[in-house]
């Protein structure tokens, strides 16, 4: 094969791989005028209960062909998504109004009670068109608010009203090329993407770039719907006023459902169609959070530098400049951290539990870093539902090897190289946060050489002098610094979960995670040094709890272990 053929093959592979790594999540679909568009329904969700329910658990209209589940990945299932087909049907670029959907059966006592309960619990209906969730705009105090989905109904003066008429607006972008779309993204790069279209169709079409819904509560004339079939036109104008409600639900009476749809051409490009859902709000708050964390880091870094440069280094330099006779004399006059040389590496209480927690902390921390990094790079777009949770589980399973390795190696280090009990530690680490691969990591950890201590441990433990204040009080107080680093970003994450919004600022989250790791390491290191200076050699568990739990505690423990090992390896004390 010649150089030209190899070059052409290489370019073809690169070009094809570009398809696989297109970040927004799915390829654009080209629809010709008149092509059918099907709306799907997701689970009913509530910011009040956080308990999802199937759309068809309420007396809504069902499609003629029957209810069918869409293929779902593991992440969607774990998040409670249940995507199903719906009776709402559109035709590309064909505006329709007063479309009769169905008339429900007379509401039974159970259905009436369930509808009132779902309205009280603020349940939302979530619709999807071409992988885009329906978005709803409301005005409040002059500000435009965006919501995904619409409420089942509303309660006004102890009367329950149902939104039984939906006004849809589909934003479309004209698509002129027939085989390959060259669409400008939000940056300077040009993306080349294949399209999904009907076979043999060369007609110009459109892409769906927006999906909006306005819910209305409308009273219908029962005499006009008795003989109507699904998708026939309701023979009376329907006025959809989102600011007024007029369809109260009553036990023993049916509910009529209708809808209308309008198509509108938009300048929104296909790669930018998620911008309406991901529009950044509160970016100044994110930067404030990062600045706040940087100030904490600089403050702690100053303390660490003082410890190393002015205290530890000064002591070590003085010690190295002395002759052997003077060193012996100095050893007899030791003070502070140098007094615990024979106890600093004494095995902690409950060493197996500590090893298990550290191993699982490494696993969780590794999963968080890798997942957030991939999400920040765009590989886990909100357009691909469930990929974030699926990715987290995948990385967590793989990193079970790291958990077993760290847990068993730390166990052997505490036991000064003794292999006894490593299988039990690996098994317990696997059961603490169940992952079978932890046993494999434990096997590698048992084969790895343990970390040797730089000093010997005395047979008789040294008595710890009485302290003016409980050491655990300082440990608990130290946890406020890592929390202060994370709490603003944590607020946005919790708001996204409880308010049913999409969290997407993974770039900010990755920066905050790195800052959190640095803060945890510095806090634990400073605290460990303070305990050693007052001759408290029981630093193992305190360094773990100083940075809260579990991944952050692991960061604190590992940084303190490195610090203590480095400190006592730098000076020869007997």
Automatic annotation (TrEMBL):
GO (cellular component) term, any one: endosome membrane
Major subcellular location class: membrane
Transmembrane annotation, as ranges: 287-309, 352-376, 388-408, 429-446, 472-492, 504-532, 544-568
Membrane topology listed for this record: Multi-pass membrane protein
Subcellular location per the Swiss-Prot or TrEMBL entry: Endosome membrane; Golgi apparatus membrane
Gene Ontology biological process terms, A to Z: protein localization to membrane
UniProt superkingdom: Eukaryota
Keywords: Endosome, Golgi apparatus, Membrane, Signal, Transmembrane, Transmembrane helix
Family, as annotated: Belongs to the nonaspanin (TM9SF) (TC 9.A.2) family.
Name assigned to this protein: Transmembrane 9 superfamily member
Source species of the chain: Gossypium tomentosum (Hawaiian cotton)
């Amino acid at each position: 094969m010649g150089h030209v053929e190899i070059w052409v093959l290489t370019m073809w592979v690169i070009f094809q791989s570009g398809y696989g790594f297109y970040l927004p999540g799915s390829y654009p679909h080209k629809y010709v005028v008149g092509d059918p568009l099907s709306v799907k329904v997701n689970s009913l969700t509530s910011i009040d209960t956080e308990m999802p329910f199937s759309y068809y658990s309420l007396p809504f209209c069902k499609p003629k062909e029957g209810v069918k589940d869409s293929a779902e990945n593991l992440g969607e299932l774990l998040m409670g998504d249940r995507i199903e087909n719906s009776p709402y049907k559109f035709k590309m670029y064909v505006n329709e109004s007063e479309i009769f959907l169905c008339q429900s059966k007379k509401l039974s006592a159970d259905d009436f009670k369930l509808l009132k309960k779902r309205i009280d619990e603020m349940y939302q209906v979530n619709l999807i068109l071409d992988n885009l969730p329906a978005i709803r705009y409301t005005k409040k105090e002059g500000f435009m608010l965006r919501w995904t989905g619409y409420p089942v109904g509303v309660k006004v003066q102890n009367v329950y009203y149902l939104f039984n008429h939906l006004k849809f607006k589909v934003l479309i972008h004209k698509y002129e090329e027939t085989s390959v779309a060259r669409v400008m993204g939000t940056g300077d790069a040009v993306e080349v993407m294949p399209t999904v279209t009907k076979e043999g169709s060369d007609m110009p079409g459109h892409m769906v770039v927006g999906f909006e819904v306005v819910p209305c509560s409308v009273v219908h004339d029962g005499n006009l719907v008795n003989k109507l079939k699904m998708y026939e036109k309701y023979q009376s104008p329907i006025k959809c006023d989102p600011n007024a409600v007029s369809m109260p639900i009553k036990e023993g009476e049916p509910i009529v459902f209708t809808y209308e749809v309008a198509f509108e051409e938009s300048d929104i490009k296909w790669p930018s169609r998620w911008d309406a859902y991901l529009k950044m709000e509160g970016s100044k708050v994110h930067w404030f959070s990062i600045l706040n964390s940087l100030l904490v880091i600089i403050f702690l870094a100053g303390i660490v530098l003082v410890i190393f440069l002015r205290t530890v280094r000064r002591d070590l330099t003085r010690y190295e400049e002395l002759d052997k006779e003077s060193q012996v004399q100095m050893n007899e006059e030791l003070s502070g951290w140098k007094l615990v040389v024979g106890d600093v590496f004494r095995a902690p209480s409950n060493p197996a539990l500590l090893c298990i927690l550290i191993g699982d902390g490494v696993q969780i921390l590794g999963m968080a870093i890798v997942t957030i990094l991939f999400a920040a790079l765009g590989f886990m777009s909100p357009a691909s539902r469930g990929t974030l949770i699926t990715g987290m589980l995948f990385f967590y399973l793989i990193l079970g090897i790291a958990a077993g390795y760290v847990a068993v190696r730390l166990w052997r280090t505490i036991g000064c190289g003794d292999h006894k009990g490593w299988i039990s530690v690996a098994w317990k680490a696997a059961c603490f946060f169940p992952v079978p691969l932890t046993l494999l990591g434990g096997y590698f950890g048992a084969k790895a050489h343990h970390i040797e201590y730089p000093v010997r441990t005395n047979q008789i433990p040294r008595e710890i002098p009485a302290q003016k204040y409980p050491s655990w009080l300082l440990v608990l107080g130290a946890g406020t610094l890592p929390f202060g680093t994370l709490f603003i970003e944590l607020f946005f994450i919790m708001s996204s979960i409880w308010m049913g919004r999409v969290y997407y600022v993974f770039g900010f989250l990755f920066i905050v995670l790195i800052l959190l790791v640095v803060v945890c390491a510095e806090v634990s290191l400073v605290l460990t040094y303070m305990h050693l200076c007052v001759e408290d050699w029981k630093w193992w568990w305190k360094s773990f709890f100083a940075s809260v739990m579990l991944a952050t505690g692991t960061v604190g423990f590992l940084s303190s272990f490195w610090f203590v090992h480095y400190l006592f390896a730098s000076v020869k004390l007997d």
